[in-house]
Structures are given as C-alpha cells and as structure tokens.
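Structural prep section.
Before we set up the soaks we want a predicted structure of the protein with phosphoenolpyruvate in place, mainly to decide which crystallisation condition to try first. Input record follows.
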Amino acid sequence: SKSRKYLIAGNWKMNKNASEGVELTEDIVSQLGNETSVGVVICPPFTALESVGKAINESNIQLGAQNMNPEASGAYTGEVSAEMLRSLFVTHVILGHSERRALFAEDDAFINKKVLAALANNLKPILCVGETLEEREAEKTIDIVSGQVRKGLEGVTADQAENLVIAYEPVWAIGTGKTATPEMAQEVHKAIRSVLAELVGEEKADKIRILYGGSMKPENADELLAQPDIDGGLIGGAALVARSFVGIVEAAA
Ligand code: PEP
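Run finished without errors. Recording the tokens verbatim:
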C-alpha cells in the first residue's frame, strides 16, 4: 500500500442544478457511510456549490470548484475569484481541464496564474494535464505532459507542494469510454513524478497525489489504482451516478 492517501474527485462538469446536486450528494453521502481512508471531493458547477456544501456538511466529503479566475476582483464579467470560492468552504479547484484548454482557449501561462492564485488563497489546485490522440500517436506524450506540468507549476515553491494535486487525463480517454491501460497510465504518472521531483525535490514529490482521469469506473478502478504512481481518480461521467462514484471510492479504500 502507498504512503499517499488516495483521492477520488468527481467532476460534474455542466450538469446538475442546485437541487439536483443536493439530491445526488445526499445519495453519495448515504452510500459512503463513514469511509475516511480515502479523500473524496465533489466538484459541482458554481451555482450548486453553496447547496452541495451544506449537503456534505456532516460527511468527510470535501468541496471543489471546476475553474477559477486568477484575479482577486474587478472587471472580469462572468468570472469567479479564489476568495469567492473560499467563502463557500471550497477546498479544491480543478484547473486547466482539457475542456477548458480546448473549448475556452486556456493556455499554460493562464493556467499557471490560476495555480499560483489558488495556492496563495489556500485552495488546493487539481492541475489537469494530458495529451491528445494525435500527440500520443506521434510519441510526444511524455514531452507534452511534462511541459504542461512545468509551465503549470512555474513559481510554485517546495513549501506549497503538499497542497498540489495533479490529474493526468489523456484527452482521447475523456468521455469516450476508452481508458488508458494501467501500464500506459503508470508510465506517464511516473514521468510526472520525476518532473515534480526536479521542481520541488524528491521528498515533496513523493507526497503529491497524481490522479488518473479518463473513463474511470468501478470496473476498471482497481487495476488503475494498483499502479505505484496512481493515487486516485478524477471522475467525469461516473461521478454523476452515486453508485458508480461510491464504487470507485470503495475500490480505493
Ligand atoms: C474528466 O472530464 O475529468 C473525466 C475524467 O471525464 P470521464 O470520466 O467522463 O472520462
């Protein structure tokens, strides 16, 4: 077993209004019971954060957001700051998800600003990285992913490392039903950890959770989580079904 505590995070994407979110959360809470050996985070849309936050109140589940603007306040119509998230008891924030990179033109420099702002405001960033199918076929996976980690973490200090979470999400595996084999994922996770060791030192790098994401479900969670550098999962589709999400948490327990 690993020294790192597993973390299972649910990314609801643009699904569930506030009351639907509460319903799903209550289902998850009741099925999870008192599971404390695994860290669990759920990331609803901004509009459901407050009500979902109340619904997880007595449980061990933590609250995450799916995005954040790096600025503290000001004329940024439609955006949400770290402090606004903190005021709703949010502890984690997904940053640089591939959908934001691809559909909303977020680049590594902008994502890096968000990572620094999240850390400065005591939010734990879940920095997402991952290659496209084209990049994998061109055998550029390790280069691409290493570059995203380096650029995303520029300026992060070793002291802040314990609050970092990385999510490796091959773009071709997200929402497609295609999963990286455990060996394919492990190879990339190991490469990410060696980049982290360069950036913050080996001892700190050994404590950083590296999650796998991409069509993870109860049926494939066991063998992915058994890999030495896979420390949990970032779950999309399966996070919208209480039984599936809890099944993945149980696989990690
Ligand atoms: C995600 O978008 O973070 C994700 C992993 O999605 P899915 O599980 O649906 O592939």
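Observations: The beta strands are 7-11, 39-43, 61-65, 92-95, 124-129, 165-168, 209-213, 232-235.
Flagged for discussion at group meeting.
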